[in-house]
## 1
Amino acid sequence: MRWREGLACPACGGRSFCELRTRRLFQCNRCKKQVRLTAGTVFQDTKLPLTTWFAAIYHLTQSKNGISSIELGRRLGVKQGTAWLMKHKLMRAMAAREAAKPKLAGRVEIDDAYLGGERTGGKRGRGAAGKTPIVAAVETTPERKPRRLRLSVVKGFRKKEVEKVAKRDFAPGTNVVSDGLSCWSSVEKAGCEHFPMVTGAGKKAATWAPFRWVNTALGNIKTAIAGTYHHVSPKHAQAYLTSYAYRFDRRRQLDSIVERLAWAPVHTAPQPYRVVTADA
Ligand SMILES: [Zn+2]
């Protein structure tokens, strides 16, 4: 996976190497530069066998709702803290893959939600204290079937925040369908067309056709996160949401998802502990 075209020396371009088996190194025959298989990848400096990583990749991809680090640690036979770090490093690789994909385009449905609780009180529960506000955007086919998902933690449902999400995630010219909440109009600042649909409140609104998929997706995500993680700190919410979207976007390619998620960390820069635990 790392050197599909064969290994070329990063220093001199040489193509013949000897393998120092005891130190897991390749040494260039021409200039003696030593190259380590995992250097410059997410696996760099790991003390675990790569087979343990591959098992982690398998377990992380097999459940739609993800897997807690406690359960992952149990399955891999490593401590929970180790499993947590592996999971977060792999989630960083997922995020890198998602970021490399084209922006959402065509027809996109957008909606607001909170992580950490149900929509209670008031019409839609907007402004709920202590919860993490997120924007969900689903690219759909013209027949309104979901294609790709983007989930973003925002500071609130404000125009500036929505504009930021739209500029990052939506291609200019995208047709954005939303409910009538005023903050959504700022998708126009990202060159999108905005189609506000006033749905009203209640059960009928949630199942109303233009929002059916977004609401289904949001409902599933909240169930997933509530069921798998009893508490997701706001600091790590984005990482979990992105990993959920990663799997959602590949739900039709599940037979190759293990190989895909093995490829991602090989082609993602190292994610040391201080990076993984830093504030988003
Ligand atoms: Zn060389």
## 2
Amino acid sequence: MNAPARINSALSVRDQFPAIVNWHYLDSAATAQKPQAVIDAITEAYSRDYATVHRGVYERSATMTASYEAARAAASALIGGKPEELVFTRGATEAINFVARTLPKEGRGRVLLSQLEHHSNIVPWQLAGFEVDAVPLTIEGQIDLDAAEQMVSERHRVVAFAHVSNVLGSIIDTKRAAELAHSKGALLLLDGCQAVPRMPVDVGTMGADFYAYSAHKLYGPTGIGCLWGRGELLASMPPWQGGGSMIDRVTFEKTTFLDPPARFEAGTPHVVGAIGLHAAVNWVEKLSLDAIQAHECALVAECREALRSIDGVTLYGPEDSAGIVSFNVDGVHAHDTATILDDAGVAVRAGHHCAQPLMDWLGVPATARASFAAHSDSSDIQALVRGVEQVKRIFSE
Ligand SMILES: Cc1ncc(COP(=O)(O)O)c(C=O)c1O
């Protein structure tokens, strides 16, 4: 296989991120830093264009409404969807809670998850009263789709998998996941939190029924996320929160509701969040998600090779993981590793990464995790390696 191409101008990409000067930020899987274009869009929205949406009859409000709806169209088009198929939420967590709470069970009270899911794709199903089955992983840390095929049944309403694992970076074969879910009449929900910032996504080709992601992991603002759903499914779902903006007519006797997506967006929405998300979508599209994917893939290979060359470092996950490398230094708790790395100017996440069942499967309480973004480069990996060597020195004293 040819070595994937790097983003040519990594330095100029990095220069667009004002908050990471002299800092090796390797925690983009937790939240992405923001490029100046996104910061500017948010600043302008508040300092020049601000007004509410969907209500005002004055021109500024109408313009803001158009911007808000343009953001919806862009956020949906990014993953191959239509504007009316995208519901704005507070984030991926709320998107999954929304589906779990609203989807009629129709006599199928089970959900099929996997051992590597983020808590956001476990707990909402439990709270909504679903019985949970969990697909095991392969040795490499992929969701075992052979096992999933055996496990899925007519009792499952939903199969819900992470498109990319936030700990291992494993990428699922989405088409196969859709086929196995649909073979038993179940729906496929993909948690796209870690995939959308890292690779091109097309919900149509994948055969997904629902797709969730968060803006803040895609270089956009916090407080806004997306739930894409097939049109006819959204149309069949009842409202889950009531309030302004989602109603057709309210009387004390009876209230009727708007069509999706408005039906699911009660209250004043995160208008400026949507505008920031739109700027983030434009930013990644300008760079191209193909280029970002190739760039992160090359960094993962370089990082794994460098860490593997250090004695006593255990690597987790598949070799071809998407932008995420989890590891441990033998005999050192991941929190200690991350604290020493912090002293060396390197930010990594340490802990269970909101994936305790996965930690159980790995047989460790925690891992350290380096995760890459479009602005990452070899200097980040070199700093990480120097930091890990320092961890080893300190713990061998
Ligand atoms: C795979 C995955 N799913 C869901 C979430 C939850 O995202 P948010 O906290 O933005 O709702 C995360 C965040 O870390 C994640 O990595």
